[in-house]
């Protein structure tokens, strides 16, 4: 008799997503769905989807969902959680949404220590709105608003959100993961589960930044986009746990570049 070893999480709808081929939003959705299922949270989970590639996330998760204006997901999450502290509330945000338009919202939400969880997808570019340069766009990276590549002398350096939020004195769980390869995906799920568990326990604000590919706006085939992330983003955006609620902050994991490769940057 055949044995089922793979199935869709109950926290995800039986539908096809709108994401481009090679985009890793779908992988991240699955990880969140698995964590929600494993912790038994589906019936009391509320997601917040702002403007961006995740704007249609309410079609994909089998949980309650709210829409938010661009960048305002942490503010909406704050309102939901304060009105209903018994709910599990998570915001699902991209880098243009969180690190640019919503910079004030995420920083103040974290500084207040709101007991919510933020899933922050960093693909180094504005995705849905046309491939513009984002605060996380890499030096020299081409975007529609910087066709010659990001010039750090004019636009500044890419913002490291995990490091920035981890400087706040308020207790929090802050981590960065990636989903471009299986080993990294396993680590990403572990970080997400830890983040949601802290909310279940009412411990602290939690955020997991997840590096993601965007083949369409990077102008690369999916396999090349994965290699580009490994070679360019990982050395600049180191993976690991940056802050824990007990104050035992830990250094980033030494995972940079392709698995097995060495980077001295």
Can you describe this structure?
The chain is globular, with a radius of gyration of 17 Å. It is built from 9 helices and 7 strands; from the N terminus they run H-E-E-H-E-H-H-E-H-H-E-H-E-H-H-E. Strand 5 (172-178), helix 7 and strand 6 form a beta-alpha-beta unit. The protein has a 7-stranded mixed sheet, sandwiched between helices. The model is unreliable at 254-265 (pLDDT under 50). Helix 1 (25-38) crosses helix 7 (182-200) and helix 3 (95-101) crosses helix 4 (103-112). The chain starts with 24 loop residues before the first helix and ends in a 22-residue tail after the last strand. With 265 residues, it is an alpha/beta fold. It is 34% helix and 15% strand. It has one domain: Thiamin diphosphate (ThDP)-binding fold, Pyr/PP domains (Rossmann fold, 3-Layer(aba) Sandwich). It has helices spanning 25-38, 73-83, 95-101, 103-112, 152-155, 161-166, 182-200, 215-218, 222-236; strands spanning 45-49, 64-67, 88-94, 117-122, 172-178, 205-211, 240-243.
Record keyword descriptors for this entry.
single chain; alpha/beta; Rossmann fold; seven-stranded mixed sheet; 9 helices
- The first-level CATH class is given as Alpha Beta
Q: Based on CA inertia axes, which overall geometry fits?
A: globular
Helix/strand structural class: alpha/beta
Domain count: the total is 1
Radius of gyration from the alpha-carbon trace, in angstroms = 17 Å
Number of helices: 9
Uncertain segments of ≥5 residues (pLDDT<50)?
A: 254-265
Strand content: 15-25%
CATH superfamily heading: Thiamin diphosphate (ThDP)-binding fold, Pyr/PP domains
- N-to-C span: 52 Å
CATH 2nd-level architecture: 3-Layer(aba) Sandwich
- How many strands in all? 7
Mean pLDDT: 92
